[in-house]
Design goal:
Elements lengths: L1 H16 L5 H17 L9 H11 L1 H16 L7 H35 L10 H30 L9 H44 L1
Helix pairs in contact: 1-2, 1-5, 2-3, 2-4, 3-5, 3-6, 4-5, 5-6, 5-7, 6-7
Keywords: G-protein coupled receptor, Glycoprotein, Membrane, Receptor, Transducer, Transmembrane, Transmembrane helix
Subcellular location: Membrane
GO cellular component, one term: plasma membrane
Length: 212
Amino acid sequence: MKDLRRYLVLKYIQYLVLSSANALSTFLGLLGSLYTMIILQSAKVSSKSTTVLISSLAKADILVSVSVVSEMVIRIFDVRVSSPAFTSALLQNLLTANTHISCLLLSCVALEAYLITFSPTESRHLRTVKNARLTSRIIWILVMAECVLFQTDDFLKATSTSAPTRNPCALLFHFSSVAAALLRSLSYFLGIILRIFNVYIYYKIFFSVSNR
């Protein structure tokens, strides 16, 4: 469990403290996720709601691995892709999806820590493995739907032409562009709210434990 706590600290620093990703934090995050996935296979680790959330958090780094490895293969072996703009947007959207999934899962872990600290008995029926799996599944579905929308918007921008405004393709382009812009703005403000939420949660927990 100490290793899992260290992993959570690493992930909090990577996604909720640092303003942007860098090569070192990404590399350490991937190593931490790989090590955590190995640990979670051990029979010594009990299946609890927290471990379910941590497992989903570690699996989210698969998106980073795909993006990083694909970019390295393209650069090192000078692989020519049919649509460089589409591929570049896809790799970036995978990184964005990873960030959003990780931030939401880390916030779920923080909320669970709050419930364990202040309402351990009353919240026991909420902190179940079934609910944790359902929450993780919902987060993955929503964020991947967001990724598809962003990718569709990037694709339409790359292939847009001066078509009539009443053309179905033009209407689709306009709708996806507006929806993607709104979602990007919402994601930005949600990220700020989640940072404040996590700081508040651990502030309350820290002073509660200190007073005891």
